[in-house]
Amino acid sequence: MNNTDKAIKALSVRAWVFKRKISGGTMSADGRLARDVMLGLSKTCRKLGLLFFTCLGDRLGLDTGQPKVPPLAVLVARGA
């Protein structure tokens, strides 16, 4: 693992710790899972250059007036 990878990993962990400190943690296992899924999706969108709320709104079927976002698996495969 090079220094850049270590720095990116440290930033990923920091986002979770920052959120936990602000919110005081979660009340249940389901809450922890939901938080982890949203943070993971947020980080994936950032890495792919997507706006998190645009992607989330598209997946929830909200009419955001933005072009449709392809499935994340397709975008990740293109970037790999």
Task: Kindly describe this structure.
- By secondary structure, this protein is mainly alpha-helical.
- The chain is 71% helix and 0% strand.
- It is built from 4 helices and no strands.
- It has helices at residues 3-23, 29-48, 52-59, 72-79.
- It is flat, with a radius of gyration of 15 Å.
- The two termini are 18 Å apart.
- The model has no long low-confidence stretch (mean pLDDT 77).
Give a short synopsis of this structure:
The protein contains four helices and no strands.
Identify the notable features of this structure and list them briefly.
80 residues; mainly alpha; single chain; flat; 0% strand
Give the integer mean of the pLDDT values: 77
Question: Main β-sheet, in a few words?
Answer: none
Count of extended strands = 0
Helix content: over 70%
What Rg, in angstroms, do the CA atoms define? 15 Å
Number of helices: 4
Q: Which residues form runs of ≥5 with pLDDT under 50?
A: none
Instruction: Name the overall outline.
Output: flat
Order of helices and strands: HHHH
In terms of DSSP E residues, the strand content is: under 5%
Structural class: mainly alpha
Intertermini distance: 18 Å
